């Protein structure tokens, strides 16, 4: 699957940023695998929040006149639909990321479960040591989203995290 979040400006959310043409090519390429592809647009007035954008794999930015920094929703949809159609017609889709050797891709729910367990584990092992955990989690989320994890890979990572949580619990019991 591939989720492309459309934004009018660069954000603190550290995602790969694509221009519309590259986004259209990537979408067509991934759809041909076949994989599910979605473009996510924000509200007309405010766009996507950082939290919403963080759930996407990549950000799409449509360059516009600095005097009018964003397009209305209909215009943004039109630009991206055009680029997807052009990529289909030209057959010049960008090369897709290496698929997981025929394995089923992890679902959104599976990835969110992994991120929740990862956050809990990092808290339990005192990884953050007084620093803001949100920053580390944003970076780790980005890393795992780029990896395009399969269901099997998510299960493996969650097993590792479960063992780390168990070891942290045992270490805490020994200290008490």
How do you describe this structure in short?
With 176 residues, the chain is an alpha/beta fold.
Give the secondary structure arrangement, pairings included.
Layout lengths: L1 E6 L8 E3 L1 H12 L5 E4 L9 H5 L3 E4 L11 H18 L17 H17 L8 H15 L3 H25 L1
Parallel strand pairs: 1-3, 1-4, 2-4
Helix pairs in contact: 1-3, 4-5, 4-6
User: Percent range for helical residues?
Assistant: 40-55%
Instruction: Give the percentage of residues in beta strands.
Output: 5-15%
**Mean residue pLDDT:** 86
| SSE run | EEHEHEHHHH
CATH-level-4 superfamily name of the largest domain: SPOUT methyltransferase, trefoil knot domain
CATH class placement of the largest domain: Alpha Beta
Radius of gyration: 19 Å
Separation of termini? Answer: 46 Å
Shape: elongated
Main pleated sheet: 4 strands, parallel
Structural class: alpha/beta
The tally of helices reads 6
Number of domain modules: 2
Unreliable segments (pLDDT under 50, ≥5 consecutive)? none
What is the number of strand segments?
Answer: 4
What is the spatial order of strands in the main beta sheet?
2-4-1-3
What is the CATH architecture term of the largest domain? 3-Layer(aba) Sandwich
User: The CATH topology of the largest domain, please?
Assistant: Alpha/beta knot
What multimeric state do the chains show?
A: single chain
């Amino acid at each position: 699957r591939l989720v492309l979040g459309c934004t009018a400006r660069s954000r603190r959310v550290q995602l790969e940023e694509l221009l519309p043409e590259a986004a259209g090519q990537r979408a067509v390429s991934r759809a041909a695998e076949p994989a599910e592809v979605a473009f996510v647009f924000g509200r007309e007035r405010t766009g996507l929040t950082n939290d919403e954008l963080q759930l996407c794999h990549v950000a799409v930015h449509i360059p516009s006149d600095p005097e009018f920094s964003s397009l209305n929703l209909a215009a943004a949809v039109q630009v991206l639909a055009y680029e997807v159609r052009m990529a289909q017609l030209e057959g010049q889709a960008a090369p897709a990321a290496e698929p997981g050797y025929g394995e089923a891709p992890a679902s959104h729910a599976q990835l969110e479960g992994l991120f929740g367990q990862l956050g809990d584990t990092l808290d339990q092992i005192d990884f953050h040591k007084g620093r803001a955990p949100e920053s580390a989690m944003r970076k780790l989320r980005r890393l795992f989203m780029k990896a395009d994890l399969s269901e099997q890979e998510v299960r493996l990572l969650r097993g590792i995290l479960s063992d780390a949580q168990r070891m942290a619990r045992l270490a805490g019991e020994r200290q008490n």
